[in-house]
Structure formats: structure tokens, C-alpha cells
Amino acid sequence: MNVGDVVRHSGKWLPVIALASLGGSGVALALPSVLGRSVDAIVAGHGYDQWLGVAAGLVALGIICSLVDVFAGTAAVAGTTAWLRHGLVRHVVRGGPEGTRGFETGDLVSRVSGNAVDAAQAGPALVSAVAAILPPAGSLVLLALIDPWLAAAFFGGVLLVIGVLFVFARRTAQISLAYQETQGQLAGRLTEALTGIRTILAAGTTAREEQRVLTLLPELHKHGLLTWKVLARSGAQAAIVGPLVLVAVLAVGGLQLVAGRITAGELFAAGQYAVLGAGLGSLTGVIGELARAKAGIRRAGEVFAIESVPHGTLPLPPGPGQLRFESVTVVAGDTTLLYDVNLEIPGGATVAVVGPSGAGKSVLAAIAARLRDPSYGQVLLDGVPLPAVHRRSLRNAVGCAFERPTLVGTTIGDAISPNPLSTVRTLAAARATHAHDFVSRLPRGYRTPLPEAPMSGGERQRLGLARAWSAHRLLVLDDATSSLDTATEMQISRTLTEDKHRRTRLIVTHRPATAARADLVVWLDHGTVRATARHRDLWHLAEYREVFG
User: How many angstroms separate the CA atoms of 16 and 398, rounded?
Assistant: First the structure.
């Protein structure tokens, strides 16, 4: 994504902004001449009513153009901001965990919420910048028509203003990008602190964490101060050059008036045109918007560069949910997380994945659910490679639950099923995972807003299990029952084992009781499959027993 893409998306509003700006520029150029004619008519003592009427009409037209410009500019920015935010969120969500691994959560939020607004200013700011050049350029031409010496005096001053603007544009672009990047880093650290607030409080490290988050404030202050210094310096220079242009034009114009080469009205018009030329200094605001827009587009473009997880177009054929890993290897940087994994998991079986910390259990689960793709090899569900399966077909077939589920939605019912019409399915999933036991005790039941629902870690896990329960072919549970009490875990394990839908269940676990109830155990060690067998057949091995502590 580049500036052109953002400008083009402003669409129908840019011509409106351009026409309004052209109309405003035309009024700004015509008004001095009309007022000059009015002055000459007043000096002559007749015909001034007509010119004053034209001047009043031009003022009214200028007001209308300004109103249209403001309305169209606001509409263009709002529409482009919405488009950018939709695109940013889409790339973040569809990029999956791997696509967003290089970004901090707070930084992504900063790009979506703040930088998108800055980037959306590109189209209107670019049109405004071009339109702002027209009055000084037109003033130069009209001054030349009045008297070439007036144009020469005007042109010399305008060159100084252009130099000021060039220096300002070059410096403010670098500072704007640095400021936005620092804002993103600050947001990232704050998000990390909020995520781990309980741990911070428990460890008594609040002061140290506060210092870590706020360490970036001096840098942010430095960039902000540099921005204001550049703006103030350029504004001061423009403020000095502007009056010099006016004085030069009026001085030359006074001499020409005394010599009888121009009229009093033309001298008045020349002064107004000099003011328009000095108005180039006001472009610092527009250039600042363009610099912030360019920086915002660059930061948004980095998110747009995230490649979406590709999905195929094939539906899943009828099948029992057989899962097959063929020479699966997963490499992250210089670390091999899984190496040459070959597994065949029977359809409808309950399979426990066990191993020490760092053995690759969660990576295997993520590969099975296609939350990430292997670096080499492939995974097939009922004979179809997962990348070839249509997105909706895959997500309907495969459900995932995690150790620390993130509950999404407005209410508890939304967290289980986002479809408001699936009340029966929501209730069935909640009962199967024993989430109904505590939800039914809440005053508003399934309509309880998530922030108002006091939940333990085990209760959150039950809701996470309920959300995954609707999958009709494969359930992938990554340590999803670790926070449950023993009695509830046994009830859910029994439900999984006796699943009447006979779905395949891949369960990452650290509990020997869960492994004992499974049909098959996959024992991982350092990214490789050490053994696949029944729990009772492996229990005699001391190293296997050590896996469970």
C-alpha cells in the first residue's frame, strides 16, 4: 500500500474538494481585482454600486466553497479511515499468530486507531496543497498584467517562502514517523503491563513496571518538541518573509502610482495579491498533515504487507476425522520446534499429546488446527491437505480450546456462540462442558455482559471448551482443562471420551488421568515423536512417568 492507494480510495470526494478549492482560489484571485475596480469607481464617483455587488457575490461564493470543502474533506477522511481500519483489522486477523508475531499488540492497536486517521488525511491534504499553490501563482500572473515590476518584487519574496517550506517539509516528515513509532512502542509496553497486571501486583514490581512503560515518554517528548520547534521556526520565518513581500510590492506599487503607471485601485489589488503570495506560509499546516499522513501510510503499509493465511476452495469429504501428519517439520528462526513428525490419528479417537515443557506439544496442536503451517511436510484431514480446504468448511470442522482462552463478544452467550439464533446449540455446548453449571447461577444468565461476569480460570476454560464444542469433526484442546478442579476435569474428560458425535479429539495434557482415558498417547520429546502407544503400555518407563512430574 502506498500514498496513491490511499488517495484513490478517497474516491468521489476528491473531485468535490478540488472543485471547492478551485472555486475558493478563483474567488481569492478575483476579489482583489473587483475591489480595486470598486476603489477606482469610488474615486471616479460613479459605477461603484455594481462592483460592490459583484464583490459581495464573490464573498458569498467563497463562503459556500469553504463549507463544501470542509464537509467533503471530513467525509473523505471518515470514509478512508473506515476503509483503512477494515483493511488493517482484516490483515491482522487473517494473518494469524504467525503473521502478527513481529508486532506488539499495543503497537497494532496504535496503528489501527491513530495512524489510520493520519493516513486518511492524505487525499484531502494533497488536494489542499495543490489548491494552495494556485492563488500565489495566479497572483504572480495578475501582478504582471498590472505591472511587470510588481510581479518581480512579488516573485523574489515568494522564492524565500518556498525555501522555508522546502526545509520544513523535509524535517517534519522524519520527525512525524519517529513520533508515531514511539507512540506505538509506548502503547505496546502499556498493553503488556495491563495483560500481566496481576503478576505485577503480586510480585510487587509496580514501580519498576511503571518506569519501564514511561521510559519512552522523554523520547516522545523530544520528538514532539522537535515538531513544534520546526513548526515554530518555519512559522516565524514565514511571518517575517510575508510582510517583506507585502512591503516590497507596496513600495514598488507606490512608485508606479506616483509615476502614473497604475491607478489607486490597481495598487489596492496589488497589495491584496501580495497578501495571497505571503499566504504560502500557511502551507506549513498542510505540509504537516501530509507528513503525518505519509508516516501513517508507511506504518499501515507494514500491516497490509502481512500475508493472509491462504485457504483453498475444497469442501471436506465425508469422513471420520482422520488426521495424518506427513514428514512435518516446523522451524522458527534457528530453532527447530518439530522435526519429521509422521503420525496417523484414527478418526473418532481420543489422543493425548504429552511431553516435557518445550517438547512441541502446542506447536503440534496449532499445526493440527491450522493455526500455523509447517515449514516442511503437510497435514491432512480425511485425506485432504488442510491448506486446500475452504476457510468456512475448515473452521466448521475444527474447534480449538486453549489453556488461557480469550473470550470474545458482548455477553457470555456471545462468547460461546456469536450467532444469536443458535440458542439451542449454545445451551447444548454449555451443558456438555459443564459451563451451564455456573452460568445459570448468574442473575442474567447467558445475557450477562462479559466484564460483569466474575469467573475463575477454570470457568473461563469451560467457556472456551463450549465455544469449540460445535466443531463437527476435530477438537484440538491445548491444555484446555489445566485449570479445572479434578471432579470437573473428570466429568469433561468422560464427556469427551463418550462423545456421541465421535469426533477426533487431540488433547494436550499434563495430567496422567487424562492420558489414561485416551485411546492413544503421542509422546513428544525435543520436537520429535518418541513413542505412540496406550498410556498403560508406556507407564512402566521411568522417563515417561517423569513427564507428569
Answer: 49
